[in-house]
TrEMBL record:
Record Gene3D superfamilies: 1.10.150.130, Intergrase catalytic core
Core-binding (CB) domain residues: 146-230
SUPFAM superfamilies: DNA breaking-rejoining enzymes (SSF56349)
PROSITE patterns: CB (PS51900)
Name of the molecule in the record: Core-binding (CB) domain-containing protein
Biological process per Gene Ontology, one example term: DNA recombination
Length: 426
């Protein structure tokens, strides 16, 4: 290709939209064009927007519209179009693009999440990748002795997929369960060749040093492992039969004045303030706050739906949400994320904020959402004179949890009555 003004051949390594060899030729061409009254030439367009393939052309136009709505910068939009050309060129009719090809074929500057988003919207993507947790299961069980590989691996896969009599567990639960019993399995493998040789005394010796929630979680994991192995005939007897975990030690006491003052310091961060007031007024869990959507807010009637439970929106929450929504519209005016709380990363997609987003803001004040939530429920229990039914209806908690809060409230109320001065009638 030659320069559009002087005719000198352009270098091989050039921009795709370069038509002049230098800035001087560009300025001279513009001068003579204005002098001769010639119209301005059309701006350069990505070849994907005018491609002969209708699928590629439709995908490119959708990517362009999505980039304008989500606020992609021009470089990101061009690279996504490059990726579409790479994966859709010579694609047979009716076929879908494999996710492995999306990850491997486009050049390194292509944003894979944006490219996946475009292909998913058009139903052109097929996920052929194996879940990361399955690879993790194969990797962590491969280091065990032969007598431990089969029962432990099958147990983890049943936790992941479930079966006819048990539901599937989340990946985080599987990680926690395995991390609790991994040291026990390593110790037993050093002395026993098979899991069936583990005795009840070995179980008690392993659980002996543990206390509180760690002991309860480890007990549940061991009961699950040996119960599964016994049911599948991989061991002869279950050494955890009748084993009960000690309940976790929950501290259900009102927050101290120092904790309340620390929370009051977090007033400049609008997102952090929304998190705190929803936990303090509505006793919202972290998951409910992260997944709260705009459709769950009824600002006019001061109502909010948290985890499927419709509640009243207090004054603090109403003011905090109004300030945050104003900041949200100003900062990300073109985002199509349906969640109330978004960040610079999630504003370009549709997913919720991460757990780390909440944790970082709560670590700044040295408190947790769960601590504030418990304090809110406990104060309601004190105000309702330890009525568990009232707590269940207001916060949607289970009856056993409501009874536990009511028992603590009764204890605190009895202490107040005992410390109150006794005035005899005159």
């Amino acid at each position: 290709m030659n320069c559009a003004h002087c005719g000198i051949p352009l270098p091989e390594k050039r921009r795709r939209n370069q038509v002049y060899c230098s800035n001087s030729c560009s300025a001279l061409a513009s001068y003579y064009r204005r002098k001769n009254g010639q119209p301005v030439p059309p701006r350069w367009q990505h070849p994907a927007l005018t491609a002969d393939d209708p699928v590629l052309r439709a995908a490119a136009r959708h990517a362009q519209e999505l980039g304008q709505i989500s606020g992609w910068n021009p470089s990101t939009a061009r690279c996504v179009l490059d990726g579409l050309v790479t994966v859709l060129t010579d694609l047979p009719a009716g076929e879908r693009v494999l996710l492995s090809e999306v990850r491997a074929r486009p050049h390194r500057w292509v944003s894979r999440p944006r490219l996946v988003e475009v292909l998913t919207d058009l139903d052109l993507l097929h996920d052929d990748s194996a879940p990361a947790i399955r690879s993790w299961i194969d990797r962590v069980t491969g280091s065990f002795a032969p007598g431990y590989i089969t029962p432990v691996r099958q147990w983890l896969l049943v936790l992941l997929d479930g079966d006819t009599r048990s539901r599937s567990r989340s990946a985080s639960s599987i990680y926690v369960y395995f991390s609790c019993i991994r040291p026990f399995l390593d110790d037993w493998a050093a002395g026993y060749d098979h899991l069936r040789e583990v005795t009840r005394s070995d179980i008690r010796a392993a659980l002996g040093p543990l206390r509180g929630s760690r002991r309860a979680t480890a007990t549940s994991a061991l009961r699950s492992l040996f119960g599964f192995a016994r049911k599948r005939g991989l061991i002869f007897s279950n050494p955890t039969t009748g084993l009960k975990g000690r309940p976790a030690d929950f501290s259900l006491l009102p927050m101290a004045d120092e904790e309340i003052r620390a929370i009051e310091q977090l007033v400049d961060d609008l997102a952090g303030r929304v998190i705190i007031v929803l936990a303090a007024e509505n006793a919202a869990r972290t998951g409910a706050i992260r997944h709260l959507e705009l459709d769950d807010l009824d600002m006019a009637n001061r109502r909010i739906t948290l985890a499927g439970l419709r509640q009243r929106l207090g004054d603090l929450s109403h003011r905090a949400l109004r300030r945050w929504l104003r900041h949200r519209r100003t900062t990300w005016p073109h985002t199509n994320n349906p969640h109330v709380l978004i960040s610079d990363k999630t504003a370009h997609g549709t997913g919720p904020i991460s757990q780390q987003f909440v944790t970082l803001r709560m670590n700044h004040i040295g408190c947790t959402v769960d601590r504030i939530r418990k304090d809110r429920i406990l104060h309601e229990a004190l105000a309702a004179r330890a009525d568990p039914l009232h707590l269940s209806l207001v916060f949607g908690i289970s009856h056993s949890t409501a009874v536990r809060y009511s028992a603590v409230a009764e204890h605190l109320l009895s202490d107040e009555l005992a410390q109150a001065p006794n005035h005899d009638p005159v």
